[in-house]
Amino acid sequence: MPRPLLLPLSLAVTFAFGQAEAADPWRLCPSPDILPPFRSGDLPAPAARDRLPTEVEADRFDLSQTGRSILDGDVLLKRGDQWLGAERLEFEHETQRYVASGGVRYEDEGFRLTAREARGDQRADSVELDDIAYQLVAERGNGRAERVEVVGNDATLFQATYSTCDPNQRLWELQARRVNVDREEGLARIHDAHLRIGRVPVLYLPYLIVPVDDRRRTGVLYPTIGQSETSGWDIRVPYYLNLAPNYDATLTPRALGKRGLMLGGEFRYLSERHRGIFEGDWLPDDRLADRRRSYLRLDHRTDLSRDWYATTRLRQVSDRRYFEDFGENVAQTAISFIDSTAALYGRGRYWRAELLLQDWQITDALLPDGAEPYRRLPRAVFAWEQPLLPWAVGGLRSELVAFDHAVRDGGRRIDLKPYLRLPFEGDAWFVRPEFAWRYTAYDLDRRDGERKPTRSLPITSLDMGAFFERGTGLFGRRYVQTLEPRLYYLRAPFREQSDLPIFDTQELTFGYAQLFRDNRFAGADRQSDANQATVALTTRLIDEGSGRERLSASVGQIRYFDAPRVLLPGESPLDRSRSAYVVEADARLSDRWSLGASQQWDPELHATTLSSIRGQYRFGEGGEAGVANLAYRFRRDSLEQAELSFAYPLNPAWRLLGRWNYSLFDRTTIEAFGGVAWESCCMAVRLLARNYVRNREGEKDTAVYFEIELKGLGSFGRDTDRLLHSGILGYSR
């Protein structure tokens, strides 16, 4: 059959090398098709092409001439999902040459084109097409070419263009004088390429090599450009290295206007049992800090068997102000320590095991030397839990760890906790008594005091609850309402522990989950004494029609029959008979409104100790969807913050973006950014200005984010996605 039907359509893949990935990126386009479908109905699967015969249709077949066939009037050639139409087709049997003319049209599952004429030579395996217009169906890419010459797997395009914009609204277009496509290599060599935004040429590339299939290729990736008050202009130009099918690398030269030239790198590898990523940044001479700056990160995993795997996680920075100067968000600037670990993990049906080595580095300039946590060299953990009888479960939690520190005395610690749980349960109730014994022993390096102290005590608990439900109506809808009372009793006798060291133990933040824990400390250096009972109540509203939980609210409090006596150094005695009331609530009032709250009220202080309120409203649909968040956080004597964030659509094309996080406690803005985003069918522009606290001294920095996205090609400028997703809860493009 004629070559046009077999044409690999190199034109399509030549310019589609940078397809953008986004949810419904073409929602603002007036029509999904630049070229309308040439035939109706679903196309057959392309995988069936080679196994199907070619069907030929025409109004008239002229076979009267020896060695020559002429098809005239609505000529159609069909094979699988491929369809070729023309007004006239002439075929020379001896020379194997043909000419298709009169509105040549081609369509398959992913591509459509029109041409004024097609000329082919079956023996030479070549075809020429004149005056072409084409469309990529899935990606919407479209363009034109004056002429295409295809010989075997090679194709040459003359005066070719590519864009994802409508032809009558060309916001951007890539133009090339000549494109040579080698499908065997999977490469296109583009000569004299111009990128135009509107009518303005913004980029000229005399020679460019791009991939035309999904094979990875070595080459330059899209640059990012930003600006900050501290570092000046920030320009990154990544260069990708396709080293092998299972490993690759990216080198990223980064020009920082006020600091100098930084080199970044990333190496990724993957095999049947191993995978990982190694990356780093190196600035040989920071002109502002007058020293070398660097950061190294390694994450590695090896699967040893079905039950065992090993990991390595290494972090290293050159100095304590690295994250302040080069961090991308407030969370990074607030990091006080980074850790490096090497670990071995195992897991079976009833057991899990861990062997870990851990070291620390200080990354906060305000902390003194020696403030880092103890190194664990090593830490071994073994946990086992298994049903012994239908109503009995036995288990063991154990830990053996050696602590080491540069300026403080270290030591070894073993912690064992065997337990027996009796889970008596029904469909609407449960009673779970548990009996445990905790034994902890030390071998300390200290010169003063006992070097081998121990601690042992029984821990008994009883956890019981019930579930009640009923149907109810509210605001014209039917709901299932539940009532779930819960009672938790804990008994652990007092043991003097002031002679035990503090290696890795701290008091847990009090919250709803703490009402049902058997220790108010994290770590084995302290086991709280207890003679207490928790009373809690939860209620839920579940929509009968959809099954969605519309409301969940819980309240609870601990009653102390004996005041807890086990303390951390410097901690004041808890001389009280009851804890604060803890209230948690989450409500989805509709598909648009959601509210959440956490509250702790101390009846002995007659004051709120913790409060967190958050609300979210989603408005609009489709292209005009947006979100607004409002939050308030309070912790007595330490924190009080208010936060507002939003992505508000003014219309389908324009959105306002912003976040304001303000500390009422410090009377200062922690982070604020605001800007606009404009989007059309084929192009988007985002502009943001950001002011944020960059270090613990409270110094601030100002940065500008500007990004232009050419849909179907790529984006240029500083990436705004990470900032917007982390700063605006529920944000989506």
Task: Please give a structural write-up.
With 733 residues, the protein is mainly beta. It has four helices and 45 strands. It has a 26-stranded antiparallel β-barrel. Strands 1, 2, 3, 4, 5, 6, 7, 8, 9, 10, 11 and 12 form a twelve-stranded antiparallel β-sheet that branches. The longest helix has 7 residues.
Quickly describe the structure.
The chain is mostly beta strands and 733 residues long. The longest helix has 7 residues, at 721-727. The protein starts with 9 loop residues before the first helix and ends in a 6-residue tail after the last helix.
Write the layout of secondary structure elements.
Blueprint: H1 10-14, E1 55-57, E2 60-62, E3 68-79, E4 82-92, E5 97-107, E6 111-121, E7 126-136, E8 142-151, E9 154-162, E10 172-182, E11 187-197, E12 200-211, E13 219-220, E14 224-228, E15 232-236, E16 239-244, E17 247-256, E18 260-270, E19 274-286, E20 291-303, E21 308-317, H2 322-326, H3 330-333, E22 337-347, E23 351-362, E24 375-389, E25 392-404, E26 411-421, E27 424-426, E28 429-444, E29 454-466, E30 468-474, E31 477-492, E32 506-507, E33 521-522, E34 530-543, E35 549-560, E36 581-587, E37 593-602, E38 607-619, E39 626-635, E40 639-649, E41 654-663, E42 668-679, E43 683-693, E44 700-710, E45 714-717, H4 721-727
Antiparallel strand pairs: 1-3, 2-3, 3-4, 4-5, 5-6, 6-7, 7-8, 8-9, 9-10, 10-11, 11-12, 13-16, 14-15, 14-44, 15-17, 16-17, 17-18, 18-19, 19-20, 20-21, 21-22, 22-23, 23-24, 24-25, 25-26, 26-28, 27-28, 28-29, 29-31, 30-31, 31-34, 32-33, 34-35, 35-36, 36-37, 37-38, 38-39, 39-40, 40-41, 41-42, ...
